[in-house]
Design goal:
This protein is an alpha+beta fold. It has one domain: B-lactam Antibiotic, Isopenicillin N Synthase, Chain (Jelly Rolls), CATH 2.60.120.330. Helices cover 28% and strands 19% of the residues. The chain has an eight-stranded mixed β-sheet with strand order 1-2-10-7-12-5-4-3. A four-stranded antiparallel β-sheet has the order 6-11-8-9, with no helix packed on it. It has a two-stranded antiparallel sheet with strand order 13-14. Strand 8 and strand 9 form a beta hairpin. Helix 2 packs across helix 6 and helix 3 crosses helix 6. About 3% of the residues have low confidence.
């Protein structure tokens, strides 16, 4: 995929540069998000060793017998283990946040070929109704006792980085620095460790079956740490259709979700993407992704920015009423 569509952007000028460097970075981000809803970021300061430790510990859990993992099983949106067939992202795919049409490859396919360990915001707000739905305790598998500390460290770093990205996005729109972060004082977030085993584990993919089916994310920004492979990430653009996403081992992949697309009146695209099935040419290929989904404070009113910043006016939505409906849509059970 051409660099002109999904650039690699160094955050260091934004974090420590002069006003001109910050403005140049904001313009690059704006252009990238208008095209595909994706960009790669370097200079983020998150050390590789932390990500490696999470992967090694999580892999040991995923390779346990299913009977050992089953007590941690949850539905999409829960905290615990999402087993084979629990999630089907293509079920909710409409081609765009506005629901303009189905996946051009046809009807939604079978459930995703993956397993996940799923974590989410767990610090109560003090509002019993909100806390009962969105701020529940996480489940930490007793069989993976070394997982909790690095995950908690990682998600804290991701929240800081996500707020940095939201401040950058506010500048890209010409708004005040806290245009978005005034709505992330006590936000919800999700963190998935996605395991994509090879065909030796999942068997032969069904027709139209992917590791993750075509979809858009639901929140504000997603920060992805991924591994490269033949059965890896693809991104959809109007210009190029489905193409392999660019990869840089030092970079995080960042995309915006449906709430942000609505907020900006579709100035920025909610990036459609999918993860290819385990390839026949490399049947034992195993990949693992660390995916941090950032959202906003519950009961945030998301209203489209007017022209000339925005392009399409959506009806205002309650952020978490919208999120719950989207999460329910991808549950395969």
């Amino acid at each position: 995929m051409g660099q002109s569509r999904i650039p690699v952007i160094d955050l260091r000028p934004w974090l420590s540069g002069d006003a001109e460097a910050r403005e140049r970075t904001a313009r690059q981000v704006d252009a990238a998000l208008q095209t595909a809803g994706f960009l790669l970021i370097t200079g983020h300061g998150v050390e590789p060793a932390l990500r490696t430790r999470i992967r090694e510990t999580a892999r040991a859990f995923f390779r346990l017998p299913e009977a050992v993992k089953r007590p941690y099983a949850v539905r999409v949106g829960g905290r615990g283990w999402l087993g084979p067939g629990a999630e089907a992202n293509a079920y909710a795919d409409t081609g765009s946040v506005s629901g303009s049409g189905p996946d051009p490859d046809g009807a939604p396919g079978p459930p995703d070929l993956k397993e996940s360990l799923s974590f989410a915001a767990d610090e109560p707000t003090g509002d019993p109704e909100v806390d009962a739905e969105w701020f529940l305790p996480n489940a930490w598998p007793a069989e993976a006792p070394e997982l909790r500390r690095p995950v908690e460290t990682y998600v804290a770093r991701m929240r800081t980085l996500s707020d940095t990205m939201l401040e950058l996005l506010a500048r890209a729109l010409g708004g005040p620095p806290d245009f978005f972060t005034r709505h992330t004082r006590h936000p919800t977030w999700g963190f998935n460790i996605n395991w994509y085993p090879g065909r030796d584990v999942v068997g032969e993919p069904e027709p139209g079956q992917f590791r993750i089916g075509a979809h858009t994310d639901f929140g504000t920004v997603t920060i992805l740490d991924r591994q490269n492979g033949k059965g890896g990430l693809q991104v959809f653009t109007d210009e190029g259709g489905w193409e392999d996403a660019p990869y840089d081992p030092a970079a995080f992949t960042v995309n915006i979700g449906d709430l942000m697309a609505r907020w900006t009146g579709d100035r920025w695209r909610s990036g459609r993407h999918r993860v290819l099935p385990p390839p026949a040419a490399a049947p034992a290929e195993e990949l693992m992704s660390l995916v941090y989904f950032y959202e906003c404070d519950p009961r945030t009113r998301v209203e489209s920015l007017p022209a000339p910043v925005g392009r399409i006016a959506y009806e205002p939505v309650d952020s978490h009423t919208y999120l719950r409906a989207r999460l329910d849509a991808i549950s395969a059970d």
